[in-house]
């Protein structure tokens, strides 16, 4: 039985999340789902086609107990260390963990133990190590291949030109179950530039499925741009701030690595 009111919040947490986070998160979930349904309706899609993946990064574990009490059981995390810390504190709950951000090869051994899916596959080195570690555990992993659709140096992901050769070699890693492509759009007030990123991913997906029929899904769209992403065909939207409220500090930005994050325990590799 989960009674969220019994989970203590610190004064700082009450400032950030209010004194009844479960109610607030539940209400925000409904609002986002209603908006997704409205967008789908407008562009002739069925709302069930779009999966809402709540992004829980920077939300403390005890606050996530309130989220869980509100019925949120899929958690998307972009940093492996943070996900591991939370897993250790929440191991009595049945959470489905999605790792959505860039992963260093030396963290693969942790990911394979608990993650249900990985959205940021972008190198053979990572594919090799994931496959090896998964095979040792006798398990498979759903993966999305990350593509850099904005051309920004700061973003991870394969260059669009490198995608098809990459996909052709994925059968070498049989423990990886390719589900689709993932991207982060450019951070811009110009909706057409954002849309161009999502459209490019869709076009790449349409070619990718001819090589690997499993690569059907598009993981794209965040709090600030999921409306455009759904219009362009998103199957999974990764939404944090619209559910859990604004993130303070450098984490307010959508992507890790753009601005050095002083709280980060992890040293990121330089994106190629
Ligand atoms: C943080 C993050 C999101 C969600 O961003 P919000 O602004 O909180 O909706 C989505 N995808 C990735 C990879 C992220 O790191």
TrEMBL record:
The chain positions of domain Alanine racemase N-terminal read 31-248
Listed A to Z, the keywords are: Pyridoxal phosphate
Superkingdom:
Bacteria
- N6-(pyridoxal phosphate)lysine modification sites are 57
Which InterPro entries does the entry link to?
Answer: Ala_racemase_N, PLP-binding_barrel, PyrdxlP_homeostasis
What does it do?
Pyridoxal 5'-phosphate (PLP)-binding protein, which is involved in PLP homeostasis.
Q: State the family it belongs to.
A: Belongs to the pyridoxal phosphate-binding protein YggS/PROSC family.
Output this protein's name.
Answer: Pyridoxal phosphate homeostasis protein
Q: Which organism is it from?
A: Pseudaminobacter salicylatoxidans
Q: What is the lineage of its organism?
A: Bacteria, Pseudomonadati, Pseudomonadota, Alphaproteobacteria, Hyphomicrobiales
